[in-house]
Known about the structure:
single chain, alpha+beta, Helix Hairpins, two-stranded antiparallel ribbon, 2 helices, 72% helix
Amino acid sequence: MNNKESHEHRHEHRHEQDSLEHSHxxxxxxxxxxxxxxxxxxxxxxxxxxxxxQIIEQNILVLSSLSLGLxxxxxxxxxxxxxxxxxxxxxxxxxxxxxxxxxxxxxxFVKKDISETKNIIEKQINKMNEIKKNLGDSLxxxxxxVTEILIESQKSEKKKSx
Length: 162
């Protein structure tokens, strides 16, 4: 191989290397963009789960408070009570019965005593706690995936810098 051919061969080889490096760099950038997009989706999912957890927590507090409040009606038949008729609005009323009219779902109302009503509330609280646990599990799964993505990203960053 003469000098001119050798020079052309080196030039071709360098061109192939440059092309290969450019291809790897493009692939790396594309992977990074995909990772960023994936992380953004996971972040949205985590935010939604956090919002749902807050709502569940609020519902549990309201139900627990309601259950405790029912105890105050025991033995109060024919006594005057304050009954809430709206948010922050109360009226004095006379309790003529300890029976409660309870919405058991689908706008179906049934007569229940205080302990039966407390049992219904307890079941609702248990359901809320189950949902809360499931949401917590989902959050942990997403956290694992995010951690895996970040570790993978760091590995490919190290490969690129070599």
